[in-house]
Design goal:
homodimer, about 475 residues, alpha/beta, Arc Repressor Mutant, subunit A, Aspartate Aminotransferase, domain 1, Aspartate Aminotransferase, domain 2, 3 domains, seven-stranded mixed sheet, 15 strands
């Protein structure tokens, strides 16, 4: 947990062990490293600083002699005191107890490990659900910013639902998908994760049940679980027939409050729900009065043919809350998305957003509006589709070459993902750990379905083509090794 | 709640009442205005559209004849059906029930009213806690953006704690205030409201008690109350002596989990805690193991003399979680703030932030880093201080001229506010409503202390000087009228 971000000064008169001890003493004295916390192991710290383990041992010995730390058997080295507490003999607040309190659960350990490993230099990220930095539209973003510079008169708080100009542009953009939504029925959010967060705290009771596809992206975040809700997953196959057949019964059985679905380029399977199935789904939901959250963040990223219109385009009863975003198409760093739905629902969610963060970055909202209004968005998305096609082709060729006998997969028609099924019983934890050792970061299937032990989400969107090829090759070797 | 954002087409062959009816029919058909919602009153809609009330009556009559709406006695006109439900006889999901569910409470009605009234054209905002758009550093922001354009290579997701470059700059900036905090102990957030939000869900149990100053900004938001916590306010006077004397007992009596304080240019009173009182406060908190949230968003905005160093600068036990932001000094629209504290606490809050919105806008973070790094921030803040001084002088002169016999106040040494005390028993609701009628938006004292019926928060930061003078003059007249 603790790192020093520091290098020993080898030219100093002060011995290195003393430098280390002083540095850590500073962290302890200011309370930045609080009493009760564990220090890094001697081995880990020696590695981080590029020194011998014996140097760290000497530093810890000095801190220990001063009564600041203590080696506890089985618990590592723990901070037991700081100079202030030594002087005053009154312990500081027990932040560790606070850290374990709170209604929110910590992120899944696997997700946290992935979040951290993403920043290891040189790692090949085979599962990352983000466009490659190579595909970042640098020139287009620069031209958008250049045009904006002259226009920005003030950057204050915006209206509760977000910058009107952006909502007007989103309204116009949605019309192109067959969705009629006035700016009043649109709320600008900081990415579609925040959309789900607002829905969970603003519209649902604790203990509600959310129906969803299994596997699903929703299992990888715990926005609903943190708010005290249950997830109930209905397996999807390519044709969605069982899913649709069982939906009514499951809704009744579980008294479900909501259905969460990703009908276009589903995350993680890449599947697309057919137009017929969309109509069927909506008619079941209307009959059962089951509101729907439609997550459409991948809809624009088709490779072969455009997917059918969103559920929201057929929705004549206001049953669907629709979410979209620029994170997958233009830039995740803008943190701009939207929710579309009946006005009273949008009003309510806007009110909660105001209580949470007083609205999304105005600067990002201006930029997003200019992207949509200028037509640059449409141009860019066409280019992204071309690039995704190339990358998907490469992924399919490489998979065919190295995985034919050990895995199977469906060809994806858009979005970022191939849902790879390994034909062998391999522990996902072991595979993840082994791959990480070899410099490859995976998104194992059990992130998207707790019981899954066979799949992996392969993203062809993030890694550079050469890395994608190299990473998949190495992965196939690792799988063969573990298998044998 | 519903507005049309539309003007009748007077040149059309279609009569205006028919145009209105068709427009509303569209909203009902798509479910944007759901079944069960109330339509605007005929009077309100006629006013919005600039038509006779009889035109709206005719439009509603047509919708009523088609079975879409119904006048219900005492409840106004309600949407009872839509074409889809007429066809299918199955009601859509009852969103109204959802809107009233959810763990989060809606914002205080007064706050919501203020949020909305802020966008009434021509209104004079006498209480707004934001720098005037006139003071927006347009040229500086343009030059910062121009320098950034060339640097931005990609705008993806950032590290969980935020852009490292920004955290390094915040670390350097805090050193100038006497706070030693490494980038690891800093979390970038979307404004300091989000800081409180993350603390409330990440560190505290439901049912915890938060101690705070009375009055306090914290009463005007309900980030802690929404998470099931109690607020307990201890009155502050100018010298804080009673406050400090009672703190230990109240902490014990209430078993309080946390103290929230704004030691520099307190919101809404403008007061500054002396250095001696800061040391006393911290020593009580350390002895009682009472963690502190120090809100320092106004600290840089001193007018006469710089305030004493923040509590965090004296904190040797890691007892203080410190929050700051660029919202009050540079631009609220960037939505950039920070929390500083012990590393395990910051790790925990970063984890929750990742679950909430995957981090703040990268673009805003780049901009904030460039502001701090280039020294433009310091230049700008010096200019803001000068402008605030002029505005405060003006406010004091105008108050002296018109309020001398009807109110009293303390001279503020920085920040945005004067806490005006009216020497008469006037209902705050009545005063607020009357002022709004006269085009003046107030922040009455009961927003910051439920039982307060005497104060008003006057901000000299927002309204233009001429408006400030005019607004205060009109306000004094209104008070005199109501009084008599």
């Amino acid at each position: 947990m603790f790192t020093l971000h520091w290098k020993p000064v080898r030219t100093s008169a002060l011995p290195i062990y003393k430098q280390i001890a002083d540095l850590i003493k500073g962290k302890i004295e200011t309370g930045e490293w609080p009493v009760g916390s564990k220090l890094p192991t001697e081995r880990a710290l020696a590695q981080e600083l590029g020194v011998n383990r014996s140097t760290v041992v000497a530093a810890y010995a000095e801190l220990s002699a001063e009564g600041l730390i203590e080696g506890k058997s089985g618990r590592g080295t723990v901070i037991t005191n700081n100079t202030w507490t030594l002087l005053a003999a009154a312990p500081p607040p027990d932040w560790n107890a606070y850290v374990h309190a709170g209604a929110h659960q910590p992120n899944l350990p696997a997700i946290r490990e992935i979040n951290q490993a993403e920043f290891i230099p040189g790692i090949i990220r085979l599962g990352t659900g983000e466009l490659s930095p190579e595909l970042f539209p640098k020139e287009k973003m620069q031209s958008v910013l250049r045009r904006l510079i002259a226009q920005i008169d003030a950057l204050g708080y915006e209206e509760p639902k977000g910058l009107l100009r952006l909502r007007e542009q989103v309204s116009r953009y949605l019309l192109g998908k067959g969705i009629e939504a006035s700016p009043d029925s649109i709320l600008i959010v900081s990415g579609s994760l925040q959309a789900l967060q607002l829905i969970s705290v603003g519209l649902l009771h604790r203990g509600s049940t959310i129906l969803l596809e299994k596997p699903s992206y929703l299992y990888s975040i715990h926005v609903f679980q943190s708010a005290g809700m249950e997830l109930y997953g209905l397996p999807i196959e390519q044709d969605y027939q069982d899913f649709l057949r069982r939906l009514t019964d499951v809704k009744k059985l579980k008294n479900a409050a909501l259905l969460y679905t990703i009908p276009s380029f589903h995350n993680p399977t890449g599947r697309v729900m057919s137009e017929e199935n969309r109509r069927k789904l909506l008619s079941v939901c209307e009959r059962e009065r089951l509101p729907v959250i439609e997550d459409d963040v991948y809809g624009d990223l088709w490779i072969d043919t455009s997917p059918p219109p969103p559920l929201k385009a057929y929705d004549k009863t206001g049953s669907v809350l629709y979410t979209g975003s620029l994170s997958k198409t233009v830039s995740a760093g803008l943190r701009i998305g939207w929710i579309v739905g009946p006005v009273p629902v949008i009003d309510r969610l806007a009110d909660i957003k105001m209580q949470t963060d007083y609205g999304s970055s105005s600067l990002s909202q201006w930029v997003a509006a200019e992207w949509l209004e200028s037509g640059v968005y449409e141009e860019h998305v066409q280019e992204v589709r071309k690039q995704l096609r190339k990358r998907r082709e490469l992924a399919l060729i490489v998979l065919h070459k190295y995985f034919n006998d050990i895995a199977c997969w469906e060809k994806s028609g858009g979005g970022f993902y191939i849902w790879l099924k390994i034909k062998a019983d391999i522990s996902p934890e072991k595979l993840f750990a082994k791959a990480l050792e070899e410099g490859i970061l995976l998104n194992p299937g059990n992130i998207y379905d707790r019981n899954d032990r066979q799949h992996m989400r392969i993203s062809y969107a993030y890694a550079k083509p050469a890395e994608l090829e190299e990473g998949l090759y190495r992965l196939s070797k690792i799988i063969r090794e573990i298998k044998s």
